[in-house]
């Protein structure tokens, strides 16, 4: 939200200055104002989707790790309980 709140005005001001000719595009700060805000917004939109895509099969691995580490047992109702026979550390 903050990237959109601050990035869009920075991008718009930089773009309008570049198009109207009041600013010099050879200045490095102009390029930063044109490139960084859209990249940050795009990164904020793509990163969660990429994380969900890469983590699809991790739920099974995480549950197996918890079962092995805690001695937990998954029940049909979706609630996990600790097996009292397995010592906890």
Overall description:
The chain is mainly α and 89 residues long. It has one domain. Helix content is 66%, strand content 7%. It has three helices and two strands, in the order αααββ. A two-stranded antiparallel sheet has the order 1-2. The model has no long low-confidence stretch (mean pLDDT 79).
Strand content: 5-15%
N-to-C CA distance: 42 Å
Counting DSSP E segments of at least 2 residues, the number of strands comes to 2
Judged by helices, strands and strand pairing, the structural class is: mainly alpha
Order of helices and strands: HHHEE
Largest sheet: 2 strands, antiparallel
Structure described in brief:
The protein is mainly alpha-helical.
Topology:
Layout: H1 2-20, H2 28-54, H3 58-70, E1 72-74, E2 80-82
Antiparallel strand pairs: 1-2
Key traits:
89 residues, mainly alpha
């Amino acid at each position: 939200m903050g990237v959109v709140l601050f990035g869009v005005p920075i991008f718009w001001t930089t773009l309008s200055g570049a198009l109207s000719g009041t600013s010099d595009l050879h200045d490095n700060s102009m390029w930063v104002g044109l490139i960084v805000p859209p990249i940050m917004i795009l990164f904020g939109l793509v990163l969660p989707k990429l994380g969900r895509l890469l983590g699809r099969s991790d739920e099974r691995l995480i549950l197996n790790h918890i079962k092995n580490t805690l001695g937990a047992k998954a029940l049909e109702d979706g609630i996990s309980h600790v097996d009292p026979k397995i010592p906890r550390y």
